[in-house]
Amino acid sequence: MPCATILTAVFNCEDYIALAVGSALAQTEGDIEILVVDDGSTDRTPEILARYDDPRLRVLRCDRGGQPRALNIGLAACASAYVAILDADDVALPDRVRLQADFLDANGEIMLVGSGVRPLIDANGDPIRRVLLPTDAEGIMSDLRRFITPMFHSSIMFRKSAVVALGGYDDTLRCHIDTDLYARLIGACQRVSIANIEAELSLKRLHPGQSFGPESGVRTSPEGLRSAETARRRIAEAFAAPWAQA
């Protein structure tokens, strides 16, 4: 069993998928699996993925069904107990898997860990700014209660068993799938079971072609608004329990 699986769902990301896969293959922790789920791409993404000849990389192709469905397909196929999410247009920094696996090994009560720093880059890979995220339980709870995502999706690693027990990602949602996952995980564990470590783990790319960026309008569409309502409800449910009132 590999130390961890880096899981990527991709749809029409020919400009960046090679950079994402390359960053996964360049991890200082060599005992890894890289699983890419191609969610029905119609551009050059399948051609680019077919060029790789590395036993650590597997590519699954499915019909277009959306990111959460593709992630669930990948999650079912992951060979590792730890799963690290890497969005297809982002970059994993070299020590990411090693640092996160060591953290989960040492902290059995934590089910999911992300980065306390979100370095933003532009379409060309040039730095824009760094965003600091909470690394303490109080800060994480405070952000979630205010519907502020306390960690960025492309930096998280989780225990596969914990997320599978939840049913994986909610594939009825059009957006906010990460915030929804964090809320459900906290609610199921009845404690703050997610954490950020004070390290840069991944680079978050901002570019006009992002599926869920401000230009796409997904978040303000009827489906996006319903997704936000669902995520807010699950946050409220998670923190309504007596353990969260202490």
Characterise this structure.
With 246 residues, the chain is an alpha/beta fold. It has one domain: Alpha-Beta Complex (Spore Coat Polysaccharide Biosynthesis Protein SpsA, Chain A), CATH 3.90.550.10. It contains eight helices and ten strands. The protein has helices at residues 17-25, 45-50, 67-77, 96-106, 137-145, 160-165, 177-189, 222-240; strands spanning 4-10, 32-39, 57-62, 82-85, 91-92, 112-121, 127-132, 157-159, 194-200, 202-205. Strands 1, 2, 3, 4, 5, 6, 7, 8, 9 and 10 form a ten-stranded mixed beta sheet that branches. A hairpin with a 5-residue loop joins strand 6 and strand 7.
Task: Summarize the model shown.
The protein is α/β, with parallel strands linked by helices and 246 residues long. Helix content is 34%, strand content 23%.
Low-confidence stretches: none
CATH topology: the name is Spore Coat Polysaccharide Biosynthesis Protein SpsA, Chain A
Provide the structure class: alpha/beta
β-strand amount: 15-25%
Gyration radius, in Å: 17 Å
Features:
single chain; 8 helices; Spore Coat Polysaccharide Biosynthesis Protein SpsA, Chain A; 246 residues; 23% strand
